[in-house]
Amino acid sequence: MSEKIVTLATLTYMRAQLLCAMLESNGIECFMTNINRMKEAAGGVGVKILEKDVEKAVKIFEDFREAYGVNKEQAVAYMKSIRRILVPVDFTEHAENAAYYALKIAAAFKAEIKLINAYLDPAGAPQTYLESYTYQLNIDTIIREIEEETEKSLLSLAERLKDEIDAKNLKGISIAYDLFKGNVVDAILNQAREYKPALIIMGTRGSKLEGLRSFGSTTARLLEKSRVPVLAVPQDYDATAFTSPIRVLYATNFDKTDYSAIRRLASFVKPFNAKIYCVHATLDEDDAVDEAEMKSIKNYLTDHMFELNVECGILETADVQQGMENFIQEKKIDVLAVTTHRRNFLEKLFKPSLTRKFLFQTRIPLLVFQALP
Predict the structure, then answer these.
(1) N or C terminus: which one in the chain shows less Cβ crowding within 10 Å?
(2) How confident is the model at residue 360 (pLDDT cuts 50, 70, 90)?
């Protein structure tokens, strides 16, 4: 069942943006409605929140009205901070492919891209690896050489991306980079907490391997642990021939977290004027429960997100995997979006469960939201 949505305030477009930024910086989920400029002139932009957050949100709104100048500065700073994309790279072909994809996404959001690389410190290797006395004597030299080589590679990639920015005359994008010693997944998660990106974009090895191995252990572990949405770009997807994600498939299993995921997905697709297909795949024909669940989602979107271009439906198919693949091809889907759950990671995405093999062999980018508590 969906959580009840209420209107906190009706403001001008700019003030609604700033209030939303303040609410989000305080952990309150919100979104704007009636943001069309003509509609704004008639009635203002609505700031919507979950009913459970009303008490906390009202206090923030009161402070916002009483000290608009101070809060405005804080809100603007927060809005800038969420226009950040974290891009882990290991200088492989699929990692560079993802970096170019991130560049095109950043152009739509006027975002900053931060490239990061994490390398294992040889000093942290098992003792058996350090048995050579000569190696121990030269450990500092080896570490320094690794750092220097990694930094050169990061700089080289950053320069190529900047050349692409200049060649395509892309505006409002900046490129930064950093390197870290230690475990790759831990380094990415730590950077996500410190850098506070809106999105993590990383490459995968494509569809030649089965199951989770096709995304690599690093990507698979990150998808399970990250609180920040992760957009995984398969190597088979040519990011240099990027086209805006104007057709997005959200695969639902009728979980209460769908509502939050769809709201976040709406923010992602907004610059692209995309259409969202909200689809549930099933082998069951004329399932009354499924029909009722889908109707609930439709009603929610009609009542609270009426400006969103979305089509909801149930895909009845004799083979769920093949049915979804056919749907993606027929509708020319650009991005597949899903929501994960820590305890049953992608196991109950569809009814019956769609195999991991399909999810991790997709040839289009996969946007993964972590279910919010």
Answers:
(1) C
(2) very low
What are the pLDDT digits (tens) for 4-49? 888 898 888 778 877 887 787 777 888 887 765 444 445 678 888 8
90 and 204 co-located in one domain:
yes
Residues 77 and 114 in one domain: no
Among the ranges given (4-18, 132-146, 183-197, 347-361), the one the predictor scored with the smallest mean pLDDT = 347-361
CB atoms under 10 Å from CB of 167, counted, come to: 8
Q: Which of the pair, 53 or 141, is modelled with greater confidence?
A: 53
Q: Check whether residue 221 and residue 93 sit in a common domain.
A: yes
Helix (H), strand (E) at residue 45: strand 45-50
pTM to 2 decimal places: 0.76
For residue 48, what are the β-bridge partners? 7, 31
**Residue listed under structure tokens 């403001």:** 11
Residues spanned by the domain of 18: 5-81
Specify the pLDDT at position 332: 93
Label residues 325-355 b or e (16+ Cβ within 10 Å = b): eebbeeeebbbbbbbbbeeebbeebbbeebb
Say if residue 279 is in the same domain as residue 324.
yes
Q: Token pair 């230690």 is at which residue?
A: 182
Task: Let me know whether 229 and 275 are in one domain.
Answer: no
**Count: domains in the chain:** 3
Judge contact between 35 and 45, C-beta under 8 A.
yes
Q: Within this chain, do residues 115 and 220 fall inside the same structural domain, yes or no?
A: yes
Name the strands in the sheet holding 84-88, side by side, starting at the edge strand that comes first in the sequence: 174-181, 112-119, 84-88, 199-204, 230-234, 366-370, 335-340, 247-251, 275-282, 310-316
Q: Which of 91-97's residues contact partners 24+ apart within 8 Å by CB, and which partners? A: 91/117, 91/153, 91/157, 92/203, 93/235, 94/203, 94/204, 94/205, 94/206, 94/233, 94/234, 94/235, 95/202, 95/203, 96/157, 96/203, 97/203, 97/233, 97/235, 97/237, 97/238, 97/239, 97/240
Mean pLDDT estimate for the chain: 78
What pLDDT band is residue 216 in, cutting at 50, 70 and 90? low
| Whether 15 and 66 share a structural domain | yes
Q: Are residues 92 and 213 in the same domain?
A: yes
